[in-house]
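Example (one chain per record):
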Amino acid sequence: MNIQIFGKAKCFDTKKAERYFKERSIKYQRVDILQKGLSKGELNSVIASVGIDAMVSDKAEDYHLFRYLTDESKPDKLLECPSLFKTPIVRNGKYATVGYCPDIWSGWD
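Predicted structure:
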């Protein structure tokens, strides 16, 4: 497995996701989404897996900037404003989840 956890330092669900993989001795790479963001390729991979609307937190301060955008301009806004992401975003190759999803992760072998 090649696990990447994109999260925010103060996000409770990100900490739970890290603990989930740590308790199972599964190595993972943690990426601070506010500092590093996602690359365009990573973003497209996650969109293909979960859809763009599932990636966006409606509690984000800048959500009002996002909700009325066209579908074509939404990815660029996410790359520009990583605070809009719902976290954690967990990737394993071509698979991805948003939020705390241990039921799905347990099937990643």
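Caption: DSSP finds five helices and four strands in the chain.
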